[in-house]
Design goal:
The complex is a heterodimer of chains A (about 260) and B (about 325). With about 260 residues, chain A is mainly alpha-helical. Chain A contains ten helices and no strands. With about 325 residues, chain B is an alpha/beta fold. In chain B, helix 3 packs parallel to helix 5 and helix 9 packs across helix 10. Classes of the chains: A mainly alpha (about 260), B alpha/beta (about 325). At the A-B interface, helix 1 and helix 4 of A face strand 1 and helix 3 of B.
Chain lengths: ~260, ~325
């Protein structure tokens, strides 16, 4: 019996591309997939920009402030994170799981780890585009933000929490159910989740609960930070706790098949 | 193919259960390098599960799998660059153009095949800009095959590579598989198409209900003109064979020695080729067939006697039964 490892000794053994090339290729692949998809663009860019402009320029919603854009722009950024890290990612992963894309890529040198890192980088890339676009539009509307480092920390934590939730949903439900759930959660959190508008506008009982949701924590944290009131530790703790719980659940329950 | 080919894949005693039902139930298989090994079996026989265990996509409940001498799960990192995979459900992203998918998979390897040449060979260049979800079944299959081999794998696992292909595409796909084999790649494919197994496979592993029920080269399975197949059954319809196969073979050989014209002692070779199926190495003539049925009467068993070469389909149906499942 010959040595199995030497089975093909007469030809060079195939090797993987360097790790950074594999991961960057995956990140680019997924980023292009979002930018190519009309529905995803609507969700991640068009709607947040539209809501930013409409809520700043109209009195559709009563805000007890002279600086409307100062309150709306952080909410639009929180909505952008919800759209990209949760809804868009859950739908993409849910359908990739059903069509076997996740399994196929996990058998290539990319592997499951590279796939995950590639996804994370793609989410960050889309978020950079969102922040640039929303920041520019808000700047044009007169936004002068402060407390940007604190906001970046909250954006990162919010992204981690919502990505974990996206993977949990995408890895446990059927693709159609993921599509329905991801869109429904987006709408519900937009209306009553403290994302776009201050939690204070909600009824008292609900407001207390919403502050403990990742959506409310992200929205309130960003509004506090970007209006120059510093980093609120409540939202940081809430987002950190959700990330730990949802991340562990996704790790435990995610099914590739 | 070298005389003693190196083994690329060794599966022994593989068991995989889903919800306490065994999809693979003690499967043994060896796939040599530079050869096409076909896993042949009806739907639900456990072929895909067995292959997925080899790909590291599923963990065996018991038994072992070695691919290039390594464990598909524990040594996944070392194996991934050397193993190509074509999944039964494709694994291709719907909204992405076909050409972009292949280039993306190629980017994972240090020294991939030339994407343009591979596309040309499999006829992918005509739909490179078309989204995967708009491709026909055959176009998708060819793209999935290209993705499986673009990294120059030492072992390629192809789950139903010609499902949904038109005859022209099938020839192109078979041609590529043959040339991979000639380059030394070990190819393990699943199929339930007999003609595919006959056209491509150096060896066939017939799987049913999660186990191997026959294995060997095509000539060994279908027999030749100088052989007679004797399938032995009990009269009471029970599925268990009336005696162990080697015992049956020895009894039949002894009985035939006296009966076959001109046979000297030891000249009639009888071997068990699968459970309850014996092969007599002798040209069929009326006297031999008479002797075989006489032996059956003496033993109190029923026999199906098939002289000469049969089709793989006959063999397959004999082995797996003719009822729908």
């Amino acid at each position: 019996m010959s040595d199995p490892a030497a089975a093909t000794a007469d030809r060079p053994v195939a090797t993987a591309a360097p790790l950074h090339r594999r991961v960057l290729a995956q990140a680019g692949f997924e980023t292009r997939a979002v930018l190519r998809n009309g529905e995803q663009l609507l969700l991640t860019l068009v709607l947040p920009v539209l809501l930013l402009v409409v809520l700043t320029r109209t009195e559709l919603v009563r805000l007890d402030t002279a600086d409307r854009v100062g309150l709306v722009a952080p909410g639009a950024l929180a909505l952008a994170v919800l759209s990209t890290a949760f809804t868009s990612q859950a739908i993409a992963t849910g359908f990739d799981r059903r069509s076997g894309v996740l399994r196929l890529l996990s058998t290539t040198p990319l592997g499951p780890g590279g796939l995950l890192v590639g996804k994370a980088l793609a989410i960050l890339a889309v978020e950079v585009i969102q922040v640039v676009v929303l920041g520019s539009v808000a700047g044009w509307l007169g936004w002068r933000p402060t407390g940007i480092p604190a906001a970046l920390l909250l954006l990162a934590l919010g992204t981690a929490a919502f990505t974990s939730l996206a993977l949990l949903v995408a890895g446990t439900l059927r693709a159609e159910a993921v599509l329905a759930a991801a869109n429904l959660v987006w709408v519900l959190l937009l209306i009553g989740g403290g994302v776009l508008l201050p939690v204070d506008l909600l009824p008292d009982g609900l407001a207390a609960v919403v502050r403990l949701l990742p959506s409310g924590a992200l929205g309130e944290g960003l509004r506090t930070a970007l209006t120059g009131e510093g980093l609120a530790w409540g939202p940081v703790l809430v987002l950190g706790a959700w990330t730990v719980v949802l991340g562990a659940a996704a790790r435990r329950f995610f099914r590739w098949h | 193919m070298p005389a003693t080919p190196a083994t690329a894949v060794v599966v022994s005693g593989l068991v995989k259960r889903y919800h306490h039902r065994a999809a693979v139930d003690g499967l043994d298989m060896v796939a040599p390098a530079g050869a096409v090994t076909a896993l042949l079996g009806p739907n639900g026989a456990g072929k895909t599960t067995a292959v997925e265990c080899c790909e590291g996509l599923r963990r065996p409940d018991s038994g072992t799998v070695a691919v290039l001498g390594m464990d598909p799960v524990a040594d996944a990192r070392a194996l991934r660059p050397r193993v190509g995979v074509m999944l039964q459900d494709g694994g291709l992203p719907g909204p992405v153009p076909a050409g972009a998918v292949l280039r993306h998979v190629a980017a994972m390897y240090a020294r991939p095949r030339d994407v343009a040449a591979l596309s040309e060979r499999l006829g992918l260049h005509t739909f490179a800009r078309t989204q995967v979800r708009r491709l026909s079944g055959g176009e998708r299959q060819r793209l999935a095959l290209a993705a499986a081999v673009v990294g120059r794998p030492d072992v390629a696992f192809l789950d139903e590579p010609s499902a949904g292909l038109d005859p022209q595409s099938r020839l192109v796909v078979w041609d590529l598989i043959r040339s991979l084999r000639d380059e030394g790649t070990a190819i393990v494919l699943t199929t339930h198409q007999m003609n595919e197994a006959e056209a491509l496979a150096d060896q066939v592993v017939v799987v049913d209900e999660g186990r191997v029920i026959a294995a060997g080269t095509i000539p060994a399975l279908v027999g030749s003109d100088g052989t007679v197949r004797v399938a032995v059954r009990r009269t009471d319809g029970a599925t268990a064979p009336p005696a162990p196969d080697d015992v049956l073979a020895a009894r039949l050989a002894a009985a035939l020695e006296g009966a076959v014209h001109g046979a000297v002692q030891g000249a009639v070779q009888v071997a068990a080729v699968s459970a309850g199926v014996l092969q007599v190495r002798a040209a069929a003539d009326p006297a031999l067939l008479h002797a075989i049925t006489g032996w059956a009467a003496e033993q109190g068993v029923l026999v199906d006697v098939a002289p000469g070469r049969r089709t793989l389909e006959d063999v397959f149906l004999d082995l797996t039964g003719r009822h729908l499942r």
